């Protein structure tokens, strides 16, 4: 009975995200006024900032889940940290791609070693390293090492956020909380809609990634159990394929019921 409920949640998130995406695109390109200085290119701002905030949220979840894993040694926390790190790195990559597209017309360069850009690059490299560490390490020891690294990597997030206040650079400050020269009401509402859209997208991807990691963990557990009983290799491969097929059949049945 649990599988259809998960599929239903996934479907609801999919519809909400799709609807919000359409609304966000309308608000970004039609509703929000054009910025006086930067012009049309400023509209990248809504996607750029929203992606950055969701990346921060994902990395915060990595830190919390990593602490919980170190305290409890429960694999579900490790899976949550791993899945959130993957999606957070994806959003951070989008930040790194939209940034130069915005910077080139404004600063006349694709990249400069501005403090905000540099700390963001370091953040991306650290979580890319986390994914490599988690991917190529096995067992509980590898999960522990990844958890410690995930906690340490989050320390760069405050540096990224407060860098425009602590050091001078080309990157603009916090426009949302600025008292003077902040965003117009239409721009602010557009930004919040984009943020909500990206949040729903993050939750949708996280829900699916957690389901996949749970399936992988179950298959790996059965595989190891069979291997410990010295099962013949040919039968082991056939049995593993059978398990994967059974998961697929159950998944399809759940979708039809929902």
UniProtKB/TrEMBL annotation:
<dbReference type="GO" id="GO:0020037">
    <property type="term" value="F:heme binding"/>
</dbReference>
<keyword id="KW-1133">Transmembrane helix</keyword>
<feature type="transmembrane region" description="Helical">
    <location>
        <begin position="12"/>
        <end position="32"/>
    </location>
</feature>
<feature type="transmembrane region" description="Helical">
    <location>
        <begin position="187"/>
        <end position="206"/>
    </location>
</feature>
<dbReference type="Pfam" id="PF01578">
    <property type="entry name" value="Cytochrom_C_asm"/>
</dbReference>
<keyword id="KW-0201">Cytochrome c-type biogenesis</keyword>
<dbReference type="InterPro" id="IPR002541">
    <property type="entry name" value="Cyt_c_assembly"/>
</dbReference>
<dbReference type="InterPro" id="IPR003557">
    <property type="entry name" value="Cyt_c_biogenesis_CcmC"/>
</dbReference>
<feature type="transmembrane region" description="Helical">
    <location>
        <begin position="44"/>
        <end position="70"/>
    </location>
</feature>
<feature type="transmembrane region" description="Helical">
    <location>
        <begin position="115"/>
        <end position="133"/>
    </location>
</feature>
<feature type="transmembrane region" description="Helical">
    <location>
        <begin position="82"/>
        <end position="103"/>
    </location>
</feature>
<dbReference type="GO" id="GO:0017004">
    <property type="term" value="P:cytochrome complex assembly"/>
</dbReference>
<dbReference type="InterPro" id="IPR045062">
    <property type="entry name" value="Cyt_c_biogenesis_CcsA/CcmC"/>
</dbReference>
<comment type="similarity">
    <text>Belongs to the CcmC/CycZ/HelC family.</text>
</comment>
<dbReference type="GO" id="GO:0005886">
    <property type="term" value="C:plasma membrane"/>
</dbReference>
<protein>
    <recommendedName>
        <fullName>Heme exporter protein C</fullName>
    </recommendedName>
</protein>
<keyword id="KW-0812">Transmembrane</keyword>
<feature type="domain" description="Cytochrome c assembly protein">
    <location>
        <begin position="12"/>
        <end position="171"/>
    </location>
</feature>
<feature type="transmembrane region" description="Helical">
    <location>
        <begin position="145"/>
        <end position="167"/>
    </location>
</feature>
<dbReference type="GO" id="GO:0015232">
    <property type="term" value="F:heme transmembrane transporter activity"/>
</dbReference>
<keyword id="KW-0472">Membrane</keyword>
